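Before relying on records like the one below, remember that each one covers exactly one chain. Contacts with other chains, cofactors or solvent are not represented anywhere in the record.
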Amino acid sequence: RRFRFQFWSRSRLADFADIRKILSNPDTLLLPDYNKPFLIRADASDIALGGSILQEDTTGTLRAVAFFSHRFSKVEQRWNVSEREAFAFVWALHRFRSILKHARNI
């Protein structure tokens, strides 16, 4: 099945702007503490992958340090589920390498 792009309505654009605002809010994102362990989460669908790197804040709540996403190419979309999931984790390690190279615990 081919992916069809649909133009967003004004309400969807407004919702997307709200989500971007929430995700970039300093209360949402946590500055990394390289002395604490990090947790990497990654997942893949049929058309894209995404992930985050998380860390506990002072209250013990897991909070995001950074997010990422990647849309699969036509070739990548033909990979089986295991290949896409593995690629999601490898892509996460690649995206977060600048944070992870300073980490003492992962």
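The first strand starts at residue 39 and ends at 44.
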